[in-house]
Amino acid sequence: MHLPLTTIPLWGLPVWPTFGLGNLLVIQCILMMYAFYTKKDLKKTALVFAAMILGAAIGSQFLFSVMGGALGAIFMGLAMHRIIQCQFPASLLITVTLFSMIALGRIGCFLSGCCFGSPTHLPIGVVYGNHSLALFLHKTLGLVGPSAQFSVPVHPIQLYETLFLIVLIFLIFRFYRSFRNALTVPLFSMGMYYIFRG
After folding, report:
1. Counts for the chain of helices (H) and strands (E), in that order
2. b/e string for 40-64 if b means 16 or more Cβ within 10 A?
3. pLDDT tens digits for range 134-165
């Protein structure tokens, strides 16, 4: 398989809409199932989720990155949670939703090649081909020749981030009752995420 991909093999679905918007549907279904099995209010859970999507869209307009979207989603999710008095624990709902969306979105980033890691000689290195930012940068920096068809191998940082977020989500589910203040969960989680991204 040569990266970047514009469509997902076998299904022919475009990468960006599938992982950029499709993950919202997947996360919404997971939250609704969790709310159903734990006897939480499904409508209020859906409203908080919708507010988070709106917040992510607004936040990403002020800070043009995942970080802007994350901050916007947290702010709007907490505000809606407070306004409608949702039974679902705000810290769990918002944090798990946000990090699940980012984790799935980063797989889309890996496939489309919009961002990439530093060069590596390790066997886990990924090579991006024509029309990729990695190849363009490597040609510009002289890491490969002007007629090269592939970039040098780079760290798959998007997959590292996805694995980190899966572990973080597991830890949140496991220990969220241990935190004394509900606001501590999203603040701690965002702090860990910013340290990882730093």
Report:
1. 8, 2
2. beeebbebbbebbbebbebbbeeee
3. 888 899 999 999 998 989 999 999 999 999 99
